[in-house]
Design brief:
Largest interface: A-B, 49 and 50 residues
Order of helices and strands of chain A: HHHHHHH
Oligomer: homodimer
Radius of gyration of chain A: 28 Å
Strand content of chain A: under 5%
Number of helices of chain A: 7
Number of strands of chain A: 0
Shape of chain A: elongated
Largest sheet of chain A: none
Structural class of chain A: mainly alpha
Helix content of chain A: over 70%
Chain lengths: ~150, ~150
C-alpha cells in the first residue's frame, strides 16, 4: 500500500507532505511510513513531536529501524493526545501496578504451596509410613516453581 | 527551589528561556517547571517535543496538572533520547512481557494449590475420618486466592 502511493509520485503526496502542503519528493523521508490513506498517523506525531523533530529523528536512524521508530512515535503520540497529562507514562504506571499486584498474588500462592507441602510432609511422615520418597520428589518439583 | 529562581526575575531566566535565548517574563509558562539549575530537563523535552509543542501542551492544561504533565514529558523525552527507536514504548513492551510471565507463573502456582488441595481432600476423606469440616474451611480459604 505504501509502495503504490509512492509509484504515483508527485501526483499523490504522502500524508506528511499533504498536511505540510509541500511537494512530496521521490526521496521524501516521510513517504514510506506515512501513506496518504492514513492521514491520522502523521497528524498525531506532527501535533505531539512536530514535523521537524520527526524528520530529524528519522534521519538519525538507519533505514531498517525507521518503521519501528514511526510505529512507536505514533503509539506515543496517540497516548499523549488521549491523555495530555500522563501520555505513555500513564500506561507504564498502570502496568507497573499490575506487576506489583501479580507479584503479591504469586507470593501468596507460592507460600500456600510451601505451606501445604510442609503440612503434607508432616502428616505423611507422621501418619503414612513409607511415603518419604514421594515427599522428596514433591519438594524438588516445588523448587522449580520458585525458579520460574 | 523553583520559587527562588523566579524571585530573581529577569536576572535569572528559567532553563527554557535560557536555552531559547529569550527574556523570561514574570508569567513565563515554563519557569515554574524548568528551573535554571536543571537545564537538562528542558533540553530533553525541547529536543524531542519542541519548545513550541511543550508550550502549547502546557497552555492547554489547567495549572494544577502542568507539573505532572512536565514530569511525564521529561520521562518520555529521556526514554526517547536513550532509545531513539522504541522510546517509552520499549518500556511498555518489556513490562507487558513481565506481566505475561507473572501470569503464567501465577497460573502454575494456583493450579498446584488446587491440585494439592484435591489430593489432600482425597486422602483426608479416604484415610482420616472426621476431617470434612476442616477440608471445607480450606476450600473457602483457597477461593480468596483466586479472587486476589
Amino acid at each position: 500500500m505504501k509502495e503504490s502511493g509512492r509509484k504515483q509520485g508527485a501526483l499523490s503526496p504522502c500524508a506528511a507532505c499533504k498536511l505540510l502542503r509541500r511537494r512530496c519528493a521521490q526521496d521524501c523521508v516521510f513517504a514510506p511510513y506515512f501513506p496518504a490513506d492514513e492521514p491520522q498517523k502523521f497528524a498525531s506525531v506532527h501535533k505531539v513531536f512536530g514535523a521537524s523533530n520527526v524528520n530529524k529523528m528519522l534521519q538519525e536512524l538507519p533505514e531498517h529501524q525507521r518503521s519501528d521508530a514511526v510505529s512507536s512515535m505514533v503509539y506515543e503520540a496517540n497516548a499523549r493526545l488521549r491523555d495530555p497529562v500522563y501520555g505513555c507514562v500513564g500506561a507504564i504506571s498502570s502496568l507497573q501496578q499490575q506487576i506489583d499486584s501479580l507479584q503479591t498474588q504469586l507470593a501468596i500462592a507460592q507460600a500456600e504451596v510451601v505451606h501445604m507441602r510442609m503440612r503434607q510432609y508432616g502428616s505423611s511422615s507422621n501418619n503414612i509410613p513409607g511415603t518419604m520418597d514421594m515427599v522428596v520428589d514433591q519438594t524438588n518439583a516445588g523448587e522449580s516453581l520458585w525458579s520460574c
